[in-house]
Amino acid sequence: MTISRRTFIKASGGTIAGLGILGTLNYKDWILPALAEEEGEKVAYTFHPPNCGGRCSFKCTVREGKLVKIEPNEWPDSVQNKICLRGLSEGERVYSPDRLKTPMKRVGERGEGKFVPISWDEALGTIADKLLELTSKYGGESIIWAGSTGVHYPMLLLPQLLGSQIITMYDIGLDTTAAGGQSMIMGFAWSTTNEITDSVNSNMAIFWGNNVLETSMTDSAFFFDAKESGTKMVCIDPVYSTTAAKCNQWISLRPGTDSALLFGMIHLILTNNWYDKQYVRKNTSSPFLIRADNKTLLREEGTNKFLVWDKNSNSLQPYDTPGIYPELEGEYTANGIKVKTVLSAYIEHVKDYTPEWASKITEIPEKVIFELTKEYALGGPANIQWGMGGTDKWYHSDTMGRLATIMAGLTGNIGRVGGGVGQGTQHGTCWSMDVEFGGWELPPEFKAADLEGKFFEYVNKPNAVKAGVFQGNPIHQYFPDYNKAKEWFKGFEFIVAVDSHQCDTVNFADIVLPAGTCFESEYDIGYLITERNHVLLQEKVIEPLFESKSDFQIEKELAELMGFAQYMPESPEEFVRAQLNSPDPSLQGITVESLRANKCVMRLNVPNEPYRAFMDHQFYTESGKLEFYSEDFIEEGYALPIWEEPNEASPSNPLYEKYPLALGTPHTRFRAHSTYSNARWLLQINAEPLVRINPKDAQARGLSDKDFVEVFNDRGSFQCRCQLANDMRPGMVQISEGWWSRYFKKGDLQELLNPNINPRGNKLIFGPHIALLDTLVEVKRVEE
Ligand SMILES: Nc1nc2c(c(=O)[nH]1)N[C@H]1C(S)=C(S)[C@@H](COP(=O)(O)OP(=O)(O)OC[C@H]3O[C@@H](n4cnc5c(=O)[nH]c(N)nc54)[C@H](O)[C@@H]3O)O[C@H]1N2
Ligand SMILES: Nc1nc2c(c(=O)[nH]1)N[C@H]1C(S)=C(S)[C@@H](COP(=O)(O)OP(=O)(O)OC[C@H]3O[C@@H](n4cnc5c(=O)[nH]c(N)nc54)[C@H](O)[C@@H]3O)O[C@H]1N2
Ligand code: SF4
Ligand SMILES: [Mo]
After folding, report:
1. Cys staple from 72: which of 2, 83, 261, 476, with CB 3.0 to 4.6 Å?
2. CA–CA separation, 52 and 427 (whole Å)
3. What CATH number labels 1-97+518-544+573-598?
4. What is the pLDDT of residue 172?
5. Residues in domain 4Fe-4S Mo/W bis-MGD-type (predicted)?
6. What is the pLDDT of residue 453?
C-alpha cells in the first residue's frame, strides 16, 4: 500500500485515519487507508453521548460505509467546536474486536461471563416471553429497567407499558446540590448558580471538589477566559488535581471536612460583619423568627405567613408587608413565646466554629482560612462551583451544599453578575436546563411502577424485584459494597444486558443483546439532546455493525412481540419530532429540517449572555426568600446545619486504626466512567489501574513506585500497581473510578465502597446518595 503525501497530510491532524497511519497503532482491519479522497465519501453529523457532560457535536466522514474520520463540528459559535481524546478514539472503539457481535445466552454461572451466540429471534423471543411471564406472575414492579448515564436512548416506553420500575442517575449523587438547592428551590435543583461563562465577571471563582479541567473538559476554554481576565481561580481539593494545577490558589484539606471550612468561614463573616446586610434583609429568611418552644418559625395565625420584627412599628408583621424594616438580629417575646431571628440563631450557632477550630479539623492554616474568607466576602463578586465527585459523595454531603449556599447568600453572591453557588461540573448550569421538550405520549393507564427507594439500597431491603433489563453498566457503577450487590444480582430470575461491549454488567446477564454505538443506526435520524445552550441532533453515520441493533430498534421489536406495537413510535425521527413539538419559546424555529440544514447543531432561542440564576431574587421557596433555616429538619436537629465527622473516613472512627487511609475514586479524563475501559488507544497512555499514594505513606508501608499491592478493607479488596505521587495528600489514596473488574488482577474497587446511607437524604429532592468517598482502606504489597 502506498500513501501519497497529500493523502497522508489530509488524513492526519487528529483524525482516526491519521492516528492509525502515524504510529504504533495498527488497526488495518477497519482503517481504509488512502482512498481516492472525496470519492464515495459521505459526511454525517452527530453528537457524542457519553456522560462526561460534554455532548460535543461531531462531523463524521464515512468512506465505503466505514467511519474513517471524526472531527469537531462547526457550532454557531466556534468556541464550542470541541473534541477530546475520548471522542477522537471512538473510531477504534467502534471497530474494536472486543465488540459484542451477536445476541448471546448464558452458559456459565451468573457473573462469570460465559455465553454462546444465539439468533435475534431466539433472544428477543425469550426476553418477551420471560418479561410477560414475570409481569403476570409478580406484577410489573418485579422488573427494573436501568440504563447507564451515557446511553443515548434509554428505553423508557416499554417499561412504562409493562408497569416496571425505571431507575435513573439520580440514584447516585446530588445531595450537595439538593441540599444547597433546598434553600432556594422546592423542586428540581439544577442551575442554581451562574454559567461558567460568567466567571470572567467574577473576582474570585472557587472550584470546590470539582476537577473541572478533567471532568468538564469542554468548559476549559471558559475557565482560562476567566483566569486571563483576572479572576482569581481557587481550587479546594485534598489533591493537587489538574484543575488545582491551573488555578491561582490551591487549598488542600483533610478529605470530607469541607463543611468545617465553611463553618469557619461563616463564623468569620458573621463576627466581622463581612456580610451584606441590605441583601440579607431583603432576600433571605434571616429576619424570620424561630420559636424557642418548638423550633418552628413563627407564623401569623390565619394567613400562616412568616412573621418578622418590624423596627418601624416595633411590632410583629408578616414578612412581606410593604414599608416594613425587618430586624436582622434580636430576641423577642411574641404572645408569650420566646423567639429569635434566624440570623441571631446563626451567630450563636457558629460561635464555637472558630477559624482555629476549623483549622484543626480541616488542617488548613488559620491564616489561609482568614484570607480566603475576607477575599470571598469583601472582594466579590465571587462564584462557587462545587463538583459532583469531591464534595457530593460523602455521608454528610448535604451540609456542604447548605453551608456554601448560606455563605453565598450572606455575602450577596446569589443573583449577581459574576456570583452564584451550585453544581459546576458538566456545564450543568446553562439555559439548556430549562428547556421543555414535548414527549411521546402513552395512554394514561400505562405508568412505570413507583420506585422502592434507591437502587443501591435494594440490596439490603425487601423489594419486589425479580428481573432486570440493563443498558450499559449500572450493576458495576451504581453500587457500593459491590460483593454484596453481586450476590443480590446472582439471585435474580432473569437479567438482560444491552451493550456494545462486554462490560461487567453484561457478565451477569442471561441474555445479551449487542447494541450499536452512537454512530450506528437503522434510521437516518437518531436522537436529540440539549447541551451548552444548543440543541443537537444525531444523523446516522454508519449501519449497525456486526449483528448489532440500535437500542431504539431493540425496544421497538420487543414491544411488537409483546403486543404493544401500536404505542411505539415508528422511528427515532417520529420520537424526535414529538420532542420538538413543544410550546417552549426557546425551541421556536428548531425543527428536524432546520437542524439538518445547520449541521445538526442550533443555538436555543435564549439570550446571548450567560445564564445567571435568581437575578430577580425570587426564590422558589415557600417564602420566596433564600431560606437559611430548614423547618423540614427540626426532628433531625438539623434545621441549622451542624458539623459531623465523616461517617467512616475519620480518625475518630475506631476502624481507622486498622484502615487509616481514605479512598478516593475520582473521574478521569481517560474515560467517561467505565466507558473506554477497553479503548486501546487510551490504554496506550493509561495502561492499567494505579492506586496513587503519597511517598510518605508508601515509605511507611515499604512500598516503591509500581509495586504490586492490595487495597483492602472488611468489605473487599482489589489488586493493582501503586504509583507514588507527591500530588496525593498523605492519609489518602486515589484510584480513578470506572475500571472494569477484568483490569484488576483480583477484586474490584467497587467492593470497598461504604454502603451506609444518611437517612436525612430521604427528605431531599433526589433522595439519599452513595457515600462512596467516605471509605477507609489499607494498602499492602503482595506477590503479583
Ligand atoms: N472525563 C470525564 N469527565 C466526567 C466524567 C467522567 O467519568 N470522565 N463523569 C461526569 C460525571 S457523571 C460526574 S458526576 C462529574 C464529577 O466531576 P467532579 O466533581 O469533578 O468529580 P471527581 O473527579 O470525582 O472529584 C473532583 C475532585 O474532588 C476532589 N476531592 C475528593 N475528596 C474531596 C473532599 O473531601 N473535598 C474536596 N473539596 N475535594 C475532594 C478529588 O481529588 C477530585 O480532584 O464528572 C463528569 N465529567
Ligand atoms: N467508585 C465510583 N463509582 C462511581 C462513581 C465514582 O465517582 N466512584 N461515580 C458515579 C457516577 S457520578 C456516575 S454518573 C456513574 C456513571 O456510571 P454509568 O452511568 O454506568 O456510566 P458508564 O460507566 O459510562 O456506562 C456506560 C456503559 O454503557 C454502554 N453504552 C454506551 N452507550 C450506549 C448505548 O447507546 N446503548 C447501550 N445499550 N449501551 C451503551 C457503554 O458501553 C458502557 O458499558 O458512576 C458512578 N459510580
Ligand atoms: S467524550 Fe465528552 S468531551 Fe470528549 S468528545 Fe465526547 S462529548 Fe466531547
Ligand atoms: Mo455522575
Report:
1. 83
2. 10
3. 3.30.200
4. 66
5. 41-98
6. 84
